[in-house]
Amino acid sequence: MNNDSLLSHRGEEPENGILYMVGTPIGNLNDISQRALNILKNVSLVACEDTRQTKKLMSRYQIKNHLISFNKDNSFKKIPKIIDYLKSGKSIAIVSDAGLPSICDPGEDLVTSAKFSGLNVICIPGPCAALTALVSSGMASSRFTFEGFLPKKAKERQKILLEISKSERTVVLYESPHRIKKLLKELKEYCGGEREIQIFRELTKKYEEHIGTNLDRMLDLIVDKEIIGEISIVIKGMEKKNDFEFSKIELKQELNELIDAGLSLSAASKYLAKKKNLNKGMIYNLF
Questions:
Q1: Do 11 and 119 have their domain in common?
Q2: Are residues 143 and 89 in the same domain?
Q3: CA–CA dist 157, 262 (Å, integer)
Q4: 3-state DSSP helix/strand/coil percent for the chain, to nearest 5?
């Protein structure tokens, strides 16, 4: 068998002791490959984020197989059991509720453990909300940054928001409906109201919606609007600035760090003014 034949054949039937990361639809149940269906039908078991969601897909295609739950709440206990199961020669498929597993879910930890144990991992490609939103946005997609859901802890969140504000690359985020307004206000604070942004809701579903504008207008549009469904956000990269420009947000962060370290506002302002070759009074007024 030549290499081309081997590559085209591999994955048609599940192989023993292999972990399959299977991409599933992000909304429209027609968006699944024949190869994925074949794997789901013939592996020893299917580990899923929510068995209720996966049952809908399995029922649609009349697939019967053993399902177990594998999610952020039980992954710590389940990973060793799954690894032992694979070592015994069984094949396992991992699926998330929607899209590619290990994107913003514990599948990443399982793959790491499987690789560390010398086990093979094969991805069965499928839909991904982040990429679907990105290619639909019309923004630069050759180089982009995916941040997923932003951290909830203030310092970690502020760090990433600052990075987004300075990034020249397109940035893709996920957010839940009840937190979207808070996130947009934060993005406006860090990136400015003129930064271009697009929101994608219910991708591939009947009521798919794309909203594209800048942050100022986006906040006006959704202030009284009830947002439901899965949300992906695409943010245009920052336009290049010359070497003489600086970020007030970054400067303010440095000022706060110096004050937290024990310097007075006056001393911290004086230090930064000398370091950045800026007016001390301007820095002082940032606090």
A1: yes
A2: no
A3: 23
A4: 45, 20, 40
Question: Strand 170-175 and strand 92-95: pairing?
Answer: unpaired
Q: What is d(CA 132, CA 204) in angstroms, rounded to the nearest whole number?
A: 9
Instruction: Give residue for tokens 């009074």.
Output: 281
| 111 & 78 share domain | yes
Taking the alpha carbons at both ends of the chain, their separation in whole angstroms is: 70
102 and 35 share one domain: yes
Tokens for 68, please give them: 């177990």
Task: Say if residues 11 and 122 touch (Cβ distance below 8 Å).
Answer: yes
Residues 65 and 13 in one domain: yes
- Look up residue 29 and give its two tokens: 């149940």
Q: Looking at residue 13, which CATH number applies to its domain? A: 3.40.1010.10
150 in helix, strand or coil? coil
Q: Which residue range forms the structural domain that includes residue 40?
A: 3-127
Rounded to the nearest 10 degrees, the angle between the axes of helix 107-116 and helix 75-87 is 40
Q: Using one digit for the tens of pLDDT, what is the confidence trace for 60-112?
A: 999 999 999 999 899 999 999 999 999 999 999 999 999 999 888 878 999 99
Contacts of 68 (CB under 8 A, 6+ apart): 45, 46, 47, 48, 51, 78
Instruction: Quote the number of domains for the chain.
Output: 3
pTM of the model: 0.79
Alpha-helix runs per DSSP H in the chain = 3-9, 34-42, 51-60, 75-87, 107-116, 129-137, 154-166, 180-191, 215-222, 248-260, 265-276, 280-284
Q: Which two tokens stand for residue 77?
A: 């206990």
pLDDT digits (tens, 9 = 90+) for 228-251: 888 999 999 988 654 444 567 788
SS3 36: helix
Q: 59 with 161, same domain?
A: no
User: What CATH number is attached to the domain comprising 217?
Assistant: 3.30.950.10
